[in-house]
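Q: Could you fold this chain for me?
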Amino acid sequence: ENLEQKQSFEQRENLEQKENLEQKENLEQKENLDQKENLDQKQSFERKENLDQKQSFERKENLDQRENLEQKENLDQKENLDQKESLTQKQNLVQEMTLEQKQSLEQDVTQDQKETLEQK
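A: Sure. Below is the predicted structure, expressed as structure tokens.
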């Protein structure tokens, strides 16, 4: 009977050890799976965050480039307009001077003709 009790005790003990080992293995597997899922979620989040940052940066960069281009075009248009106005002013000035010179020359010729007539 002692032998039977001992064997029964050993069987229970072995069974408990086996169950404990299975529980431990199951727990480790669950922990490993949880860690993997957490890592996957973290990596997925980081990829999304990096992509969002990259897209945001690209949108800002494109906007800055567009604004710079518009400013440059506006400046170029203004410079062209200023140059055109300046050229027009110069042309008008030259026309005025030419007209004044012509009138002055005509007056000189008229005066010379008068003097020549008077001398005769």
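A (continued): The chain is about 100% helix and 0% strand.
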